[in-house]
Design brief:
Blueprint lengths: L1 H27 L2 E12 L3 E8 L11 E8 L2 E2 L4 E4 L9 E6 L3 H7 L6 E8 L12 E7 L4 H10 L8 E7 L8 H10 L3 E7 H4 L4 H4 L8 E6 L2 H11 L1
Parallel strand pairs: 8-9, 8-11, 9-10
Antiparallel strand pairs: 1-2, 1-7, 2-6, 3-4, 3-5, 3-7
Length: about 240
């Protein structure tokens, strides 16, 4: 009997989760209709999807993510994918920095200006609000994992926070450093931001020693965003 009860509870939770995801989420989730403003190519396999509100504007904290679906004729596509916000909430435009990988992202890249899209969110706790108890911040973004940090640094340009921030942009080669100029410009504009480009093809294997060389680890918040392998490797080295 205990096993039967446990399996029944798991089945109930599973069915409830499926019902919420498939039926209720699209009906009750916070959603906004936007329109494509422009597509900006970024490097060999990336692009920015820049959208503007068709009606109500979404409020969000830098670093959060949204689920996105696109208009398919007179209906919304059933396919929905998450993307990090790489813009600052002080601007009317919302930017999603995307790496082309699969049919859905190829469709996004081909959208024309004015095409309706729907975004659900914002979601997530990967924001600078989670680091208020630390005196210094180190941001490490690998590849398209730099996206949430782009929005954070843009927002810091208008924020009153005085904590120093060091941002590392890890790429395989210079051809994939699509946001290098933008990050370099933000670092020049904000005195307390230090930016470093890390090209792994020329610098060898990623080592956390480079990151913590001149950092007091005890007062520093480390924010890491990249592939699962990258995140696990860097987290293990930091520990």
């Amino acid at each position: 009997e205990p096993l039967r009860l446990w399996i029944g509870m798991l089945a109930f939770v599973g069915v409830g989760s499926w019902f919420h995801h498939v039926v209720m989420f699209r009906r009750t989730g916070a959603k906004y209709v936007y329109r494509v403003a422009r597509i900006v190519p970024r490097g060999p396999d990336g692009f920015d999807l820049v959208i503007v509100p068709a009606d109500q504007r979404m409020s969000y904290a830098p670093g959060k993510f949204v689920f996105l679906t696109i208009a398919d004729g007179k209906r919304w596509s059933r396919e929905m994918h998450p993307f990090s916000l790489s813009s600052s909430p002080v601007t009317r435009e919302v930017r999603l920095s995307i790496r082309e990988a699969g049919e859905f992202t190829r469709r996004l890249k081909q959208l024309q200006p004015g095409h309706p899209v729907q975004i659900y969110g914002p979601y997530g706790g990967f924001t600078l609000l989670a680091t208020v108890s630390f005196e210094r911040i180190v941001c490490i973004g690998s590849g398209i994992g730099i996206a949430p940090f782009l929005g954070m640094l843009q927002f810091e340009h208008t924020d009153n926070d005085e904590r120093p921030i060091t941002a590392f942009y890890v790429v395989h080669d210079r051809a994939h450093a699509a946001y290098h100029d933008e990050l370099e410009g933000l670092a020049h504009a904000i005195d307390r931001v230090t930016y470093r480009l890390w090209v792994s093809a020329g610098s060898g294997r990623r080592s956390v020693g480079v990151v913590i060389a001149d950092v007091d680890v005890g007062i520093t918040a480390f924010m890491i965003c990249g592939s699962s392998e990258f995140n696990e490797e860097f987290s293990a080295q930091l520990r």
